[in-house]
């Protein structure tokens, strides 16, 4: 009887969170070159999820910052067009009734 080959990926060793390439730069904080960041993205994400900000550099120049996601406030609730329109600022000028009355009065 034939056995079906496993479709699961073999388990690998857990990646080390050690970032030897990372350095602390004055006024920037933790910085890592882009090549090392590409190679250690999972480890960087673990650091960032723990609250650490990481600056990615290219040729020693800061290019991007990885930072933890901040909790967002709830979404605004849409209550309908009536409420929306009533909150709009009314532009000055005569009302529609005044315009119609003026038009009718100007006719012979």
Structure description:
This protein is elongated. It has a domain at 23-66: YefM-like domain (YefM-like fold, 3-Layer(aba) Sandwich), CATH 3.40.1620.10. The longest helix has 11 residues, at 96-106. Residues 12-16 have low confidence and may be disordered. The protein starts with 22 loop residues before the first strand and ends with a helix. 5% of the residues are buried. The protein has helices spanning 34-39, 41-49, 81-86, 96-106, and strands spanning 23-25, 29-33, 54-58, 61-66. With 108 residues, it is α+β, with helices and mostly antiparallel strands. The protein is 30% helix and 18% strand. Strand 3 and strand 4 (61-66) form a beta hairpin. A four-stranded mixed beta sheet has the order 1-2-3-4. The protein contains four helices and four strands.
Order of helices and strands: EEHHEEHH
Structural class: alpha+beta
What's the mean pLDDT score?
79
Total of DSSP H or I helical runs spanning 4+ residues:
4
Estimate percent helicity.
25-40%
CATH C-level of the domain at 23-66: Alpha Beta
Lay out the secondary structure.
Layout: E1 23-25, E2 29-33, H1 34-39, H2 41-49, E3 54-58, E4 61-66, H3 81-86, H4 96-106
Parallel strand pairs: 2-3
Antiparallel strand pairs: 1-2, 3-4
């Amino acid at each position: 009887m034939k056995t079906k080959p496993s479709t699961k990926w073999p388990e690998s060793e857990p990646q080390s969170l050690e970032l030897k390439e990372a350095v602390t730069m004055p006024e920037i904080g933790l910085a890592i070159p882009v090549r090392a960041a590409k190679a250690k993205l999972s480890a960087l994400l673990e650091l960032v999820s723990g609250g650490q900000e990481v600056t990615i550099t290219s040729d020693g120049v800061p290019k991007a910052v990885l930072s933890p996601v901040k909790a967002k406030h709830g979404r605004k609730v849409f209550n309908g067009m009536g409420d929306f329109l009533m909150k709009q600022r009314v532009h000055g000028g005569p009302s529609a009734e005044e315009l119609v009355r003026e038009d009718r009065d100007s006719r012979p």
